[in-house]
Design goal:
Rossmann fold; 13 strands; globular; alpha/beta; 6-stranded parallel β-sheet; 11 helices; single chain; 310 residues
Length: 310
């Protein structure tokens, strides 16, 4: 039997990369399916996609032009044209049966190439407000899958279908955690790149927090040195209660172990909900279309989280 070929595009951030990585892992278990994963070459892509056993990881060029000077917008446009040519080449070379796109700017060149070459496209939206890229692509996509109930989107999108979020297999289990720690554990997350405002909030109260809790803090690259200095300033008897790190590699284990999670309001909300974790969500106020606030409000209105605006 001839192998089926599937393209998966998820790039740049954890919210786009991890779902594609999860989907690729599941597809690798199927016989007669070849998986091709596309990204823009970000560090988080390399961390995850390098773990795939039988999928091919290919880099494409894409331009991010939402904000910036006229020059940066022209540069982004030129990159997108290069990306379009690359994607047309890959589609013609490998002839995929379907292309799966996980939102953001990096999917546009592949979506346009697929439309030109009449290759079917399906997309997935993680947020309560459909992003700009997905909103555009949905006009010609074969199917648009969404994480929240269809009716909250208030969009006349043809072929929209509720699928729920794409979660790691580890999140399907309940009550996995075995309580081994005396102190309750607080997990601080600001997305794969950290969140400076959340970090500042934690730094200002780290002594009080570390006195009564274990703190696992994903700071991102920007604030890790400050966090390490803050740890050194703590009394010796509570220093080990504060564990700052640039990036948490095995974040699902940290989520399982946490009693409380303080986080932005990206698609990771579903991972917290899968384990019924108490959460404080601080939406990123400059997110595209203010989708993080919409995500947090949906859960807060159902008394499933506490939302604090930055």
């Amino acid at each position: 039997m001839k192998n089926k070929r599937i393209f998966l595009v998820g790039a740049d951030t954890g919210g786009h990369v991890v779902p594609v990585f999860t989907l690729a892992e599941e597809l690798e278990k199927e016989k007669n399916i070849e998986v091709f994963v596309f990204g823009v070459g970000s560090e988080i892509e390399k961390k995850f996609y390098s773990k795939l056993k039988n999928s091919r990881y290919l880099k494409i060029v894409a331009g991010k032009s939402q904000f910036g000077s006229p020059f940066s917008k022209v540069t982004a446009f030129c990159k997108s044209i290069i990306g379009l040519v690359q994607c047309k080449y890959y589609i013609l070379k490998f002839r995929p049966q379907v292309i799966f796109l996980k939102g953001n700017y990096a999917t546009i060149p592949m979506a346009l190439a697929a439309r030109i070459l009449f290759c079917p496209v399906i997309i997935h939206e993680s947020d309560a407000i459909i992003g700009r890229s997905n909103k555009y692509i949905s006009k010609f996509a074969k199917k648009t899958f969404v994480s929240y109930p269809v009716e909250i989107y208030h969009l006349p999108i043809k072929n929209i279908k509720y699928s729920g979020p794409i979660l790691r297999p580890e999140y399907s289990a309940k009550n996995i955690r075995q309580q081994q720690n005396i102190l309750p554990k607080i997990l601080i997350l600001g997305g794969s790149q950290g969140a400076h405002k959340i970090n500042e909030l934690i730094f200002a109260s780290i002594k009080e927090l570390s006195s009564g809790y274990q703190i696992v803090h994903q700071t991102g690259n920007q604030d890790i040195k400050v966090a390490e200095e803050k740890k050194k300033e703590l009394p010796l008897d509570i220093q080990n209660n504060y564990q700052p790190m640039t990036f948490i590699e095995n974040v699902f284990r940290s989520i399982i172990d946490a009693d409380l999670i303080v986080s932005r309001a990206s698609s990771s909300i579903f991972e917290y909900a899968a384990f019924q974790k108490a959460t404080i969500l601080i939406p990123y106020p400059y997110a595209s279309l203010d989708h993080q606030k919409a995500n947090a409000k949906y859960f807060a209105n159902k008394n499933a989280t506490v939302m604090i605006e930055e």
